[in-house]
Amino acid sequence: MYLLRCRRMCRAGEFVCRKRYYPLSKKRIARAAQEGIVHIESELSFDVVVVGGGIAGCCAAIEAAHAGASVCLASASGVFSGSSFYPGTWGLGLIGPRDAADIDDMVETILHVGRGVADAALVDSFVRGIPEAIAALEAMGVSLKRPANPDEPQYIPCFDHSLRMWRGLERDSMKRGFEQALCEGGVVRFDGCELLDIAMDGGCTRGALLFDRSAKRFRAVSCGAIVLAGGGVAGLFKRSLSASGNSATVQAIAARCGARLVNLEFMQIMPGLVAPRRNIVFNEKAFRFARAWDASGEPIARDVLEARSEHGPFSCERAGAPLDFAMEACGDEGMEIACDVGDGSPEFVRTFSGWLERECSVSASAPARIAPYAHASNGGIAIDEHGSCGVPGLFAAGECTGGMHGADRTGGLASANALVFGRRAGVAAAKFARGFVGECAGGGANARSETPGFASVGTLASGCGLDVGSCRGSDAEGIATKSDSRNARCAGGSRFRSRCGSVSFEVEERAYPASGAALRELRETMSTHCMISRDADGLKAAANAISALQERVGEAAYAPVASFGSESEPASELMSASGLAPSSSPCSDAASIAATMRIRLQLETASATVAAMLARKESCGSHYRSDAVQ
Ligand SMILES: Cc1cc2nc3c(=O)[nH]c(=O)nc-3n(C[C@H](O)[C@H](O)[C@H](O)COP(=O)(O)OP(=O)(O)OC[C@H]3O[C@@H](n4cnc5c(N)ncnc54)[C@H](O)[C@@H]3O)c2cc1C
Questions:
Q1: Containing H/E element for 270?
Q2: What are the two backbone dihedrals, phi and then psi, of residue 564, each rounded to the nearest 5 degrees?
Q3: Ligand 1 close to Cβ of residue 230 (< 6 A)
Q4: What are 167-214's pLDDT values in tens digits?
């Protein structure tokens, strides 16, 4: 039996990662098995680990690589996934200011639509960053859809009062552009690898614990900085218009590291089809051309349908809200609806109905049923304008973050958010990580991962100086080392600079045997009490149910037998493709342990979300309290 180790070696002044096999004594293996601990040593070291394969994660990885960092992009459901590449829609609308003169109005509108909940400085910086982010996207070769008639009022973004610059992001073009840029930047892709924990050293991120879903192994990587881009919390709900890999775990991971979660109560809920097919977005603009019936068979009033066609997600502030209440009252079966979409309908509606027929084999004019779906989060991990979470080495971007949106969000700004802050977080993370190079102090350090009630320990083989302020890099430093670093990766393929010490995790072999059932129960709870109509009793019931689940998941434990990798173990496709050796940490029931870690994180995010819903006692935008005192 052997344990694969990754060690830093100094050769001609250059740090190179080497992999070596050390025989493990039988005694050590037996002791580990007895202790019920899985040891996971870092295989690789990167400047930056980016978590999430949607727009935000791809942009962060591309920009971090351009800034000269060695980058690993880990994504639970593979790169080019998440809501950004959700197959149940034609693509994504993206808006920005029409010109410089439009910036102030756009900022004011976002703040107004956000009902004073958004962070004004962050919004200002966000809007100013959109044109540059769009230009960068086009420079990557991503072709953006432009409206045939940009002055058509249908292009006024939902909740907005004015036409903006509108662009359409289509999946295939985006994927091609990102793929090329990731490749050129030498970004190493860990497709199917899910972040489950972060190692902290003196309050600074130093490594990531990943679970490789296809190889069913844990993998550890050491790094100088981490960018979280794991998407929103809609996956906590039974009916969700978001991708299955969006497990809503990164919010809890960030909170465990000391980051703040903000505005979690504001989650967009929008209509989607439940028949003839499920999980397909219903374009609200089609309401104008529709007839619909409530649970008792009464037709929905024409003025309500007209009003509801003005915005996609539910907002309690709008005249169309009664339609959402009626839709929720129809339950899982959904509300009956019939649309009359013809050649005379606006371009937006024709695009939707054409896509529905072509891609989903559903006629927009055929009778259908719609129900409320959890859609996109307006809140999440608090970040500053550079994507920093306020925890040294921890950055976040995209839908898992909050502050740039408020109680309602203007349509087309979620994709813009992922683009703008994804890019910025990538640059800032690269600078932060590379800033360690000259400042690193040697010596060993041990750090317990800051995860209360959590069973993994991060151990650093050699630590960096803890004065994080002095570790930050400068622009000049980044540029000076950019070319040699990138050349090294391109030439070698399997050579990686190791700027920080290796990290090892120890994961307790404790698994809850019914994680899947616990997740179903959690989703049922969230869907019963936390969808459109919320009140204190329901939210307290949800909080209690989540606590009970947390206790159950935390208490139950069993100990599968540990085993360690041998030399003859076949390399996984991913590793052999990069010329790397396989992981050192297969465990007989790693999938169950990972599932337990995942459900614990999901319960923590859910608990924080319900707490935020309880704390906000007034109705506001996407958050409706039926028990609010008017
Ligand atoms: C149907 C639909 C239509 C939409 N339409 C619009 C629109 O028209 N305009 C607009 O602006 N916005 C729209 N949105 C919202 C927008 O798509 C998202 O907010 C945005 O794409 C989010 O990008 P992201 O990169 O932050 O997250 P995502 O694209 O959701 O990506 C998250 C990634 O993180 C990965 N991940 C999650 N957790 C982990 C973990 N622990 N470890 C590793 N990986 C993890 C996932 O696998 C995924 O790859 C829409 C969303 C949906 C679902």
A1: strand 267-275
A2: -120, 155
A3: yes
A4: 999 999 999 999 999 999 999 999 999 999 998 888 889 899 999 999
